[in-house]
Amino acid sequence: MADYLLPGRSAFGAQDPAQLSDEDFEALVERSEALARDLPPERRQLTAFEQLVADAIDRLPAEFVAVIDHLPVVVSDRGAAIHAYGQYYGATIARDRAAHRIVIFQDTLERDFGPDPELLARQVERTLRHEIAHHLGYGEPGVAALGL
Q1: 76: β partners
Q2: How many domains does the chain have?
Q3: DSSP labels for the chain?
Q4: Which pLDDT value is given to residue 102?
Q5: What is the tens place of the pLDDT at every residue in 47-89?
Q6: Which of 24, 30, 38, 52 to pair with 5, CA 20 to 30 A apart?
Q7: Considering the domain boundaries, does residue 78 fall inside one?
Protein backbone atom coordinates (compact mmCIF):
# COMPACT_ATOMS: atom_id res chain seq x y z
CA MET A 1 0.00 0.00 0.00
CA ALA A 2 1.37 3.41 -0.92
CA ASP A 3 1.84 6.07 1.71
CA TYR A 4 -0.43 9.09 1.27
CA LEU A 5 -0.89 12.27 3.25
CA LEU A 6 -4.64 12.36 3.88
CA PRO A 7 -6.70 14.43 6.31
CA GLY A 8 -6.68 12.67 9.65
CA ARG A 9 -3.95 10.25 8.63
CA SER A 10 -0.29 9.97 9.45
CA ALA A 11 2.27 11.05 6.87
CA PHE A 12 3.78 7.58 7.32
CA GLY A 13 0.73 5.68 6.09
CA ALA A 14 -2.95 5.21 6.77
CA GLN A 15 -2.95 5.20 10.56
CA ASP A 16 -6.26 5.24 12.41
CA PRO A 17 -6.46 8.71 14.04
CA ALA A 18 -8.04 7.10 17.10
CA GLN A 19 -4.72 5.31 17.65
CA LEU A 20 -2.71 8.54 17.76
CA SER A 21 -1.51 9.81 21.11
CA ASP A 22 -2.97 13.13 22.23
CA GLU A 23 0.39 14.74 21.46
CA ASP A 24 0.48 13.29 17.93
CA PHE A 25 -3.16 14.28 17.35
CA GLU A 26 -2.44 17.85 18.50
CA ALA A 27 0.57 17.96 16.15
CA LEU A 28 -1.62 16.71 13.29
CA VAL A 29 -4.29 19.33 13.98
CA GLU A 30 -1.72 22.12 14.24
CA ARG A 31 -0.09 21.00 10.97
CA SER A 32 -3.52 20.83 9.28
CA GLU A 33 -4.35 24.33 10.48
CA ALA A 34 -1.02 25.63 9.20
CA LEU A 35 -1.61 24.04 5.81
CA ALA A 36 -5.15 25.46 5.70
CA ARG A 37 -3.84 28.97 6.38
CA ASP A 38 -1.48 28.63 3.40
CA LEU A 39 -4.15 27.52 0.91
CA PRO A 40 -4.85 29.83 -2.00
CA PRO A 41 -8.30 31.47 -2.11
CA GLU A 42 -9.67 28.72 -4.38
CA ARG A 43 -10.27 26.02 -1.83
CA ARG A 44 -11.58 22.54 -2.35
CA GLN A 45 -15.27 21.77 -2.30
CA LEU A 46 -16.67 21.12 1.18
CA THR A 47 -17.95 17.64 1.97
CA ALA A 48 -21.64 17.33 2.83
CA PHE A 49 -20.80 17.15 6.55
CA GLU A 50 -18.42 20.12 6.39
CA GLN A 51 -21.22 22.06 4.70
CA LEU A 52 -23.50 21.23 7.67
CA VAL A 53 -20.87 22.72 9.98
CA ALA A 54 -20.46 25.79 7.75
CA ASP A 55 -24.25 26.25 7.69
CA ALA A 56 -24.35 25.99 11.50
CA ILE A 57 -21.71 28.72 11.72
CA ASP A 58 -23.71 30.87 9.30
CA ARG A 59 -26.80 30.54 11.54
CA LEU A 60 -24.98 31.85 14.62
CA PRO A 61 -25.95 35.27 15.95
CA ALA A 62 -23.54 38.01 14.84
CA GLU A 63 -22.17 38.34 18.40
CA PHE A 64 -21.08 34.68 18.39
CA VAL A 65 -19.60 34.92 14.90
CA ALA A 66 -17.44 37.81 16.17
CA VAL A 67 -16.32 35.69 19.14
CA ILE A 68 -15.22 32.79 16.94
CA ASP A 69 -13.88 34.87 14.06
CA HIS A 70 -10.32 33.61 14.59
CA LEU A 71 -11.25 30.29 16.23
CA PRO A 72 -10.60 27.29 13.98
CA VAL A 73 -13.50 24.86 13.68
CA VAL A 74 -12.13 21.47 12.64
CA VAL A 75 -14.02 18.36 11.49
CA SER A 76 -12.57 15.08 12.74
CA ASP A 77 -13.47 11.40 12.76
CA ARG A 78 -11.95 10.77 16.19
CA GLY A 79 -15.12 11.21 18.29
CA ALA A 80 -15.69 7.52 18.99
CA ALA A 81 -12.25 7.31 20.61
CA ILE A 82 -13.18 9.94 23.19
CA HIS A 83 -16.96 9.36 23.25
CA ALA A 84 -17.85 12.88 22.14
CA TYR A 85 -19.71 14.87 19.50
CA GLY A 86 -17.43 17.86 19.88
CA GLN A 87 -14.48 19.13 21.87
CA TYR A 88 -13.21 22.58 22.75
CA TYR A 89 -9.44 22.84 23.04
CA GLY A 90 -7.84 25.80 24.77
CA ALA A 91 -8.37 28.03 27.74
CA THR A 92 -11.46 30.17 27.96
CA ILE A 93 -11.76 33.45 26.10
CA ALA A 94 -11.19 35.13 29.50
CA ARG A 95 -7.89 33.26 30.02
CA ASP A 96 -6.13 33.31 26.69
CA ARG A 97 -3.19 30.99 27.38
CA ALA A 98 -3.53 28.19 24.84
CA ALA A 99 -4.30 27.66 21.18
CA HIS A 100 -8.05 27.56 20.81
CA ARG A 101 -10.05 25.35 18.47
CA ILE A 102 -13.37 23.59 18.25
CA VAL A 103 -13.43 20.06 16.89
CA ILE A 104 -16.70 18.65 15.57
CA PHE A 105 -16.64 14.84 15.39
CA GLN A 106 -18.24 13.62 12.20
CA ASP A 107 -18.04 9.91 13.06
CA THR A 108 -20.10 10.04 16.26
CA LEU A 109 -22.59 12.61 14.98
CA GLU A 110 -23.28 10.64 11.81
CA ARG A 111 -23.40 7.37 13.75
CA ASP A 112 -26.05 8.67 16.15
CA PHE A 113 -28.00 11.18 14.01
CA GLY A 114 -27.04 10.43 10.38
CA PRO A 115 -30.14 8.59 9.20
CA ASP A 116 -32.19 11.78 9.62
CA PRO A 117 -30.52 14.71 7.75
CA GLU A 118 -32.57 17.37 9.57
CA LEU A 119 -31.80 15.87 12.98
CA LEU A 120 -28.11 15.63 12.06
CA ALA A 121 -28.04 19.31 11.02
CA ARG A 122 -29.71 20.36 14.30
CA GLN A 123 -27.29 18.27 16.37
CA VAL A 124 -24.26 19.69 14.50
CA GLU A 125 -25.51 23.20 15.32
CA ARG A 126 -26.20 22.27 18.95
CA THR A 127 -22.71 20.74 19.28
CA LEU A 128 -21.11 23.85 17.78
CA ARG A 129 -23.00 26.12 20.20
CA HIS A 130 -22.07 23.82 23.11
CA GLU A 131 -18.37 24.13 22.28
CA ILE A 132 -18.65 27.90 21.79
CA ALA A 133 -20.12 28.10 25.30
CA HIS A 134 -16.99 26.36 26.60
CA HIS A 135 -14.88 28.90 24.71
CA LEU A 136 -16.82 31.65 26.49
CA GLY A 137 -15.94 30.11 29.86
CA TYR A 138 -18.92 27.91 30.71
CA GLY A 139 -18.21 24.54 32.34
CA GLU A 140 -20.47 21.53 31.75
CA PRO A 141 -23.02 22.59 34.40
CA GLY A 142 -23.26 26.06 32.87
CA VAL A 143 -23.55 24.67 29.35
CA ALA A 144 -26.29 22.29 30.51
CA ALA A 145 -28.15 25.20 32.12
CA LEU A 146 -28.12 26.89 28.69
CA GLY A 147 -29.86 23.81 27.27
CA LEU A 148 -26.85 22.76 25.28
Answers
A1: 105
A2: 1
A3: ------TTSBTTB---GGGS-HHHHHHHHHHHHHHHHTS-SSPPPPPHHHHHHHHHHHTS-HHHHHHTTT--EEEES-HHHHT-SEEEES--TTS--S--EEEEEHHHHHHHHTTSHHHHHHHHHHHHHHHHHHHTT--HHHHHHTT-
A4: 92
A5: 999 999 999 999 999 988 888 888 889 999 999 999 999 999 8
A6: 52
A7: yes
Residue 28 within any structural domain of the chain: no
The total of other beta-carbon atoms located within 10 Å of residue 108's CB is 23
pTM higher than 0.90, yes or no?
no
- pLDDT tens sequence across 85-103: 999 988 655 555 567 889 9
Does residue 41 carry a pLDDT above 60? no
- Structural domain for 116, as ranges: 45-145
Q: Which of 97, 82, 87 is nearest to 128 (CA)?
A: 87
